[in-house]
Amino acid sequence: MIRCTIRFFTFAFTLSLIHFIIYPAISQDEMPPEIDLAQPLTLEQCIQLALVNSTNIRNARIDLVIAELRVKNARARYYPDVFLNGRYSFSDDIDFGFERENYDAGLNAQYTLWDNGQREASFSQAKESRNATTSRNEQIKQNLIFQVTQAYYSILEAQELFKVSGEFLARSQENTARTEAFVEAGILIPADVATSQVREANDELSQLNNQNALEISMATLPRLMGLDPVRNPLITVAEDADYQRYRETGNIEILEILIEEAIQRSLENRPEFPEIQARIKQLEWDLTLAKLNRWPRLNARYDFDVNLDDYLRERENFEDFRSWSVTATMDFPIFDGGVTKRRVQEAELVLEQTREDASDLERSVALEVRQTYLNLRRAERAMQISVTQVRNAQLSLDVIRGRFEQELAILLELLDAQTEFAQSLTNQVRAFYDYKITQTALLRAMGELQ
Fold it and tell me: How many domains does the chain have?
């Protein structure tokens, strides 16, 4: 039996829609024309590239297209279903001394006249699912911006730490060479050379660690941006003007906000809240649908058939070989073994769980904002302390170096002063970028990361 239906054309149209809407989003290398990867990238450029090429963003777009298709499918239930039927079969009836062939064709249509609101519930449920997907995509976007920002600052931090460790490794090598010269001159003893070599080895290991951290950070950022690792294996980032200003003046623009205001803004802006509210409405419609399954449905059906076998033989009086009928049916569920009842109970329990999750979400978001806010204030204070540490360590190093050159201090004091100064510079770099990342984390916690 061969059956050709209009649904086939609907299916083909849907495939074409997916091809033209989704396929370009996941196949084309969409590179904003104003961004040159051969040049150092700013944070804004990295975010712009990530929002175009990231796998998470592309999947989020697909999820939204799928949700929109489901809304259209739910709306399509308001329309009748039309079928075009054709049949070709062999018959064992003998006519005119040879085996007879039978042909039939028909057109059928059916429509639900009344379903007690099931189509409306399904349509509303699909729309709430689309709303939830839209809010979830906004959350994915903000998380991606935070990840890219974190990776971007990690590169800058690793670059500065590598620079600092390189400078102190060069000083350690100079100290070792000077110590060896002093030993040959009889001023120092061989044990001083060993002490200097130990410090040099530690500085070399520190530089290797910073180099590895830099290379890992430079590989992490392109991955988050969705860049091809073969065609775009390496990128560079632009220098941070805020860090240079911080190094020169010891000041940085502080995010002035009270913790109560931060929490309030998070409750207003976080995309998780509209998402879970849409999810609750979707489950409410799901519960409504489960209850409506207990009610009857009124359907209408129209059939139009043509006996092609006889018509093709006679080829006249077409009306004699056609027939049509209209039928109205009502389906009333009487017994299903308790399936509908259990579906209603399950829908009620899932809805209760989701409402409890919504209540807990407010508490969780408030706690997250509070923790991030306190971390930001700690990071601010750490930057202030690091400035004082660098200044004091520099003064101490200058004094001890002068005393060492006048043979009033031993080599170990000089090495300790250099180590303390190197550590203070390292702390300053880490304190600055920890503050920048924590500031971005607070914006994300408030739902304001754009």
Answer: 1
